[in-house]
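Notes continue from the previous slide.

Worked example: a multi-chain complex. Inputs as given:
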Amino acid sequence: MSTPVAPLPEWLDAVRFDAAGLVTAVAQDVTSGRVLMVAWMNREALALTQREGRAVYWSRSRGQIWRKGESSGHVQRVREIRLDCDGDTVLLAVEQVGGIACHTGREHCFFRRLDPSSSQWETTEAVRVDPEQLYGPTTTETS
Amino acid sequence: MSTPVAPLPEWLDAVRFDAAGLVTAVAQDVTSGRVLMVAWMNREALALTQREGRAVYWSRSRGQIWRKGESSGHVQRVREIRLDCDGDTVLLAVEQVGGIACHTGREHCFFRRLDPSSSQWETTEAVRVDPEQLYGPTTTETS
């Protein structure tokens, strides 16, 4: 567990966290309009995102707060935070520093496209940066 | 329970459904690039989405398959299906028939924006169509 942000701001009351205390977070590139990735936030991560002006997620696999770009330097600067009608998803307009949002070294995470003719997943985006160069041989950043 | 789609196509094997059998689905407008909504799909909903070329979700609140637009007519025609790096989110490029994606009668669901100066949610999008006109007085379409 990391240190809680106290006191938690009032605007968080409109957010409907699920039974695990999480909401879905969609990061969209403010320039290209591309959906870069989808991850999770708990109350603290969302509060930190607003306070620090950078995307902070909750890593379900590691069970800890995850400041996007903390290992890779590929920070997401947050330009806008939106909330959906039923309050369980936030949409971030971000500036993706370094241009690589995906831990595979690609620009975004949605690099598999269902080919309508073959009904197979095809990889549409190249690896731009070797993941080892981003994170080192042993660590990574995953949701 | 609705009728299963059998046999389920092979490309579904790459999708990592969660413990509840669901994946997150993000619908993005193919023309404007706007993120319209985020909902959920089970295996059947995703298979139907591909087969019918329109967004079919799983309604967690109603516990059933939900063909987007089945009440309102505001169908989402699916132009592309993408899968993210860890396989637990699909991204749909859609053409939003009728222009109204949100059950509140707005063009999209992310109509609340966190105002950086006041730290309050502000509503940035007007209601375009009375929800009662979309669904009638008693029914609705929700995730």
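Summary box: The CA atoms of residues 85 and 100 of chain B lie 30 Å apart. Residues 10-104 of chain B form a domain with the Ubiquitin-like (UB roll) fold (CATH 3.10.20.810).
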